[in-house]
Amino acid sequence: MNWFTYIFLSALGSGLLLQLWLLLRHRNHIIAHRSEVPEAFTNHISLSQHHTAADYSVAKIKLGIKEIIFGSALLLAWTLGGGLQLIQETWNAMALDYNPLILGTGFILSVFLISGILDLPFSIYRTFVLENKYGFNRTTPARFLGDLLLTLALTLLLGVPIIWVILWLMQTAGDLWWLAAWAFWTGFTLLMSWAYPTLIAPLFNKFNPLEDEELRMRIQQLLDRCGFTSNGIFVMDGSRRSSHGNAYFTGLGKNKRIVFFDTLLEHLEAEEMEAVLAHELGHFKRKHILKGLVIMVISSLLGLALLGWLITQSWFFNGLGVTTESNAIALLLFLMAAPVFSQFLQPLMAKLQRKHEFEADDYAADQTGAEHMISALVKLYKENASTLTPDQLYSAFHDSHPPAPVRIAYLSSKLKMETPV
Length: 421
Prior knowledge:
By secondary structure, this protein is mainly alpha-helical. It is built from 16 helices and 4 strands. Strands 1-2-4-3 form a 4-stranded mixed sheet.
């Protein structure tokens, strides 16, 4: 152990305690307000529905606590516990004459695979116990397994070339390899953002053109008013896996498409669907998507530049339990250790995201009227069993969307402004 070990352990320990404290605050706040529906929702959500939402949230918190503790223990096992060192030595012993790129790629993929297997019990419990208990799960074991195998195949299909190219650049591109790796990663990310709607997403779900002619025309008029062009309006069969509802638009350039979950169509009226879509378009019109891409590009550049320096520092390897230095293990160590430190910046990102949500709500209210956005949100909160009473501090740290009461109060204030005196 060296000085960096103590810094890493301090950040990991303080972060773990902070996350657990926030989760317990959140749980206690929900339980304390379980007996009464917030005033803004009393006409729309019954006390029994409020109880269900509270119990569902508490159950997710309990699972989250176990996942955080397990994740921290696993991180220690991989690093200071010698897990990465052991797997790297095993690969080296099995294939002494292999190309370092093959060894490095196989090493990284094997760590990802083991981590995925260890995390699988949590995913199974969440899907078939927790979600099933509260009536949200609609997937079957066969479909769950099929999704798992398809995800694994895509990980290999896309992951192997990505890892290979980055390790090759680390090996051959000199001291500024990180700049070349950043250019490659940025290009790949943009390519996937463009290709996802038509090449990746259809592997998991069916996307059919919206058949409701009246709703389709209503949406098209909204798109025309907003100056938004897309590659179509589609309905996704989200009900095959879950009863949760959502809507989004995805893709870049001319490959953009609008997607509604079929479960959303079951619960919302046409004007509410229009309001939800207007909110999503608000993100586009206010350039939130572009801003998110810029943040991603800058953060990945800074991260790779930092790794480019850390890879030359023996204390980085030794401080995280590694004695055999390599490009592959440096990449893994950075991917594992970076979140330990970056988690303390999470409130800043959450605040920015909530600001974007308010701006998107403003846009939706201007385009379709605040009352339709309010009624749509209330229905979504009810159908998704979202907690109406989150802890304020927990929400400030974690939530990308404003708490339900805050968001409804904000839209209600705009509704009052719309009402003529």
